[in-house]
Amino acid sequence: MRDNDSVYLFAPLNISVSLHSLLPSFHPQNILFCEVADGISAYGIASHRHAPEIEQGLTEATGGKEVLINFTPHLMPMSRGILESIYVKLAPGKAAADLKAHLQEVYEKEPFVHILQGGKVPETRHVRGSNNCIINVFDDRVPGRAIIISAIDNLVKVRLKGRRGGGREGGILNVMVGH
After folding, report:
1. CA–CA separation, 146 vs 95, rounded Å?
2. Model's pTM, two decimal places?
3. Gyration radius (Cα) of the chain, Å
4. 31 — pLDDT class (breaks 50, 70, 90)
5. pLDDT at residue 1 greater than cutoff 80
6. Whether the Cβ atoms of residue 170 and residue 132 lie closer than 8 Å to each other
7. Residue 91: beta bridge partners?
8. What is the largest CA-CA distance in the chain?
């Protein structure tokens, strides 16, 4: 990345991820899908609890150069999954293809991380029921910028170390910082 303080993250999340933090008396049996269907809503605006840890991980990954992100998750009426759209500025002389090649090299031996070929776009339905994180990198229409799209099923129970799919094994930001 060129400007470490220019990372913008849009992450639509399934209902199960966010309702428990939005509603103080959350009980899954008391929430009907139809109550959230046909709508999308932002939450944790300018104050999401995971923003500091994402920034910390990215700062560590850049050798200590402070990275600040803009992150506002959105509640989506879907039963599982997270789709992330991440907008970054590239280093001078670098292109989205360079970033993609770097990710392919770094994660070629990771069994759950898959960098898609060509213009294939990750979708949450492509990872449903798996511990996979699928990623692709695209040129932005603005020169010197790239868009990273990733998808995970955050409700999968991981057989490795007993963590959930949305934990350290999931999500492009975790993948980018080596977790």
Report:
1. 7
2. 0.75
3. 16
4. low
5. no
6. no
7. none
8. 53
3-class secondary structure, 14: coil
Q: Tell me the C-alpha to C-alpha distance, in Å, between residue 136 and each of 49, 115, 132.
A: 26, 6, 13
Q: Are strands 133-139 and 145-152 parallel, antiparallel or unpaired?
A: antiparallel
CA distance 56 to 59: 5
Residues 6+ apart with CB under 8 A from 104: 115
pLDDT (tens digit per residue) in 142-170: 999 999 999 998 888 654 444 444 443 33
Q: Which of 20, 133, 3 is nearest to 70 (CA)?
A: 3
Residue 47 neighbours by CB distance under 10 Å: 9
Query: What's the 3-state SS for 17-83?
Result: HHHHHHCCCCCHHHCCHHHCCCCCEECCCCCCCCHHHHHHHHHHHCCCCCCCEEEEEEECCCCCCEE
Question: Which residues, 6 or more positions from 35, have their beta carbon under 8 angstroms from its beta carbon?
Answer: none
Amino acid letter, 119: G
57 and 2 in contact (C-beta within 8 Å)?
no
